[in-house]
Design goal:
The protein is an alpha+beta fold. It contains 17 helices and 39 strands. It folds into 6 domains: 100 residues, Rossmann fold (3-Layer(aba) Sandwich); 142 residues, D-amino Acid Aminotransferase, Chain A, domain 1; 69 residues, Dna Ligase, domain 1 (2-Layer Sandwich); 82 residues, no CATH class; 118 residues, Glycoprotein, Type 4 Pilin (2-Layer Sandwich), CATH 3.30.700; 67 residues, RNA polymerase II/Efflux pump adaptor protein, barrel-sandwich hybrid domain (OB fold (Dihydrolipoamide Acetyltransferase, E2P), Beta Barrel). It has an 8-stranded antiparallel sheet with strand order 14-13-10-11-12-15-22-20, with helices on both faces. α7 packs across α8. It is globular and about 90 Å long. The termini are far apart.
């Protein structure tokens, strides 16, 4: 077994590999860029080596620097994680040349499966079901149209070297095929330096279901069940679960056996994933093979009990797998939600900055949090904005969903925007709960983007009762202040008015009988009784307890005299007032927000790459005004209507905050 391994990655996956290596008694080496000097994976590892500047092209993608770090520290093997160099044949070959083990497959398998065209040819030869299509080199857009007609519309036009949704277009007619071929080819050329594209039948109502395989290169190759990954936004996975709510035992077995056949065809060794597209009739077709550990591997671990990272390390060290196919049993249900630093209410724009408060839900047999961040750390503009992977396990799918909803309520993040409200909405969506999934789920359920109205409807009485109990508890503490004048005893009132979303709700509280170690009140709201119990401590940001016997977790932030409460993804500003103060509050004028319609505002924190206008210039609706770069993505800002530029408020090259003024119109 290895004595020391280097992790050629960062963030949550580096931390996850370090945890397993530590349990196995293996020392670890982290690598880091300028931006990751104080990162969690650097702190967790036994050693750390600086490998370059913040941009990944100057650090995490530098093969020679990582090989040199191995030599300098004596690391005998490298785990690549996912992304970066994990599927680079050149990286595996460079390590092999230096006598360093690669914890993954060999260069042959990486190369064979890394090319979408070649991998489909290999899959067909191995007897794996493939989507009808044309895998040859397509000369021009007219040939693409002829091929599309032969296959039958709709078709999918894909870049051979593509990934992450880049270089993909769906065409429903000749004109879309021409345009799709040209744009996919251009995108492929700029993203992958490879403009080859191919055409295949577009499967309608598709599901994205993948099979986890594991091979030791010594005759044993297994499949460890499937993962349902159909909940995607712009071809990026958002929710994954295992097993799939759609597959039956016969389809699972057939898919697993074909995945193993493909792995054997390329002499696969290590953990890998074979991805399939599955239609409404459970016909399945090979999509691609990922020759690495998948982001969503924890759900497989939770239902099988196997540590995939440990098994990868053991296989790389030359050990033979001790498990057989009949040893693989699926227990219960697991769901993974990807928690990102992005603003779902602003079309999922990335959010960067410092995590001023960060409290993930407590880990237990039902909750797992894989993260690479910590309170006080920063979400950098240079890398993927993932905060964590939140996983829940339950004996049934309904139990896993319920656990996820509760865990999302407990996830306390401040300082950056995050997508927890969107994840909470997905978990409460009836179509999701019913398991009626396709890769078009998000586009169909949220056709105009995500809005507050998409959040799960909750009984307002829950927030009213919790707010009243919080306020009453704080008042109970306040009257105990020392140094009061004799005879000047203050009694806490029982009657209050809770103002929620501008509506006043009179409440009456009286203590509930029970444990003196807990807060307990019966709250009367408009003639209905609500019993609230909690062990909440004053000042804690999470109010955990029960309302009428149902478990709730409400996040609390103090905002002046009011409270900002977060529950089930939604938030509300709540005031708790005396009846007299409530009457006066109702008379207060509402301060209208300033009119910002004449300004171009930065939709995200980022760098102002370019300005396309000058003061005094007339612009037309749709005309490009500026380009803002964030998370290595360029965002083009256009004029919403015709107008004249009155003033430029920001210079090219300046750093912008959210809603910072860029251009002012007359």
């Amino acid at each position: 077994m290895f004595e020391k391994i280097l992790i050629a990655n960062r963030g949550e996956i580096a931390c996850r590999v370090i945890r397993t290596a530590r349990r196995m008694g293996i020392k670890t080496v982290a690598v880091y860029s300028d931006a990751d000097k104080n990162a969690l994976h650097v702190e967790m590892a036994d050693e750390a080596v600086h490998i370059g500047a913040a941009p990944s092209a100057q650090s995490y993608l530098q093969i020679d620097r990582i090989v040199e770090a191995c030599k300098r520290t004596g690391a005998q093997a490298v785990h690549p994680g996912y992304g970066f160099l994990s599927e680079k044949r050149e990286f595996q070959e460079a390590l092999a040349a230096a006598g360093i083990a690669f914890i993954g497959p060999d260069a042959h398998a990486i190369q064979a499966m890394g090319d979408k065209i070649e991998s489909k040819k290999l899959a067909k030869e191995a007897g794996v079901s493939t989507v009808p299509g044309y895998l040859g080199v397509i000369a021009d857009d007219e040939e693409a149209v002829m091929i599309a007609r032969d296959i039958g519309y709709p078709v999918m036009i894909k870049a051979s070297a593509g990934g992450g949704g880049k270089g993909m277009r769906v065409a429903w007619n000749d004109e879309e095929a021409r345009e799709g071929f040209r744009s996919a080819q251009n995108e492929a050329r700029s993203s992958f330096a490879d403009d080859r594209v191919f055409v295949e039948k577009y499967i309608q109502q598709p599901r994205h279901i993948e099979i986890q395989v594991l091979a030791d290169g010594q005759g044993t190759c297994l499949y460890l069940g499937e993962r349902e990954c159909s909940i995607q936004r712009r071809h990026q996975k958002v929710i994954e679960e295992a097993p799939s709510p759609f597959l039956d035992a016969a389809t699972r077995k057939a898919m697993g056996e074909q995945a193993v056949a493909l792995a054997n065809a390329v002499q696969y060794k290590s953990a890998g994933t074979v991805e399939f597209i599955v239609d409404a009739e459970r016909n399945f077709y090979f999509l691609e093979m990922n020759t690495r550990l998948q982001v969503e591997h924890p759900v497989t671990e939770l239902i099988t009990g196997f540590d995939l990272v440990e098994l990868m390390i053991r296989v790389a060290a030359g050990e033979k797998l001790s498990i057989k196919q009949e040893d693989v049993r699926l227990h219960g249900w697991a769901i993974e939600a990807r928690v990102y630093a992005e603003d779902p209410f602003r079309n999922f724009l990335p959010s960067t900055g410092r995590l001023t408060h960060y409290r993930p839900p407590a880990a237990d047999p039902h909750v797992r949090v894989d993260t690479g961040v910590f309170e006080g750390g920063e979400i950098s503009m240079y890398y993927d904005p993932m905060i964590a992977k939140l996983c829940t396990w339950g004996s049934t799918r309904d139990a896993a969903i319920a656990g996820m909803r509760e865990a999302l309520d407990q996830y306390y993040i401040r300082g950056v925007s995050h997508n927890i409200p969107f994840l909470a909405s997905l978990m409460a969506n009836q179509r999701f709960v019913d398991g009626r999934l396709t890769t078009n789920f998000i586009a169909e359920e949220y056709p105009s983007g995500f809005h507050a109205s998409d959040l799960p409807p909750e009984d307002p009485a829950v927030l009213i009762a919790v707010a009243a109990v919080i306020h009453r508890s704080l008042n109970d503490r306040d009257i105990q202040i020392s140094g009061k004048m004799p005879g000047n005893k203050v009694k806490v009132r029982d009657d209050w008015v809770v103002v929620l979303d501008g509506t006043q709700h009179p409440v009456h509280l009286h203590p509930a009988e029970g444990s003196p170690q807990r807060i307990g009140y019966t709250v009367d709201i408009e003639g209905k009784h609500h019993t609230v119990w909690s062990d909440w401590q004053l000042g804690e940001p999470l109010f955990r307890g029960t309302v009428n016997g149902n478990h709730v977790c409400v996040q609390i932030d103090r905002v002046g005299i009011a409270y900002r409460l977060h529950h089930s993804g939604s938030q509300a500003i709540v005031k708790v007032l005396t009846p007299k103060a409530a009457k006066l509050d109702a008379l207060m004028p509402v301060k209208a927000p300033p009119d910002m319609s004449k300004f171009l505002l930065s939709p995200m924190p980022g760098l102002l790459v370019s300005l396309a206008v000058t003061e005094g210039q007339e612009v037309k609706a749709g005309e490009v005004l500026a380009v803002v770069e964030a998370m290595k993505m360029e965002n083009i800002l256009r004029a919403a209507q015709d107008g004249t530029v009155a003033k430029i408020h920001a210079a090219t090259g300046s750093s912008l905050a959210v809603d910072q003024k860029i251009v002012e119109f007359a």
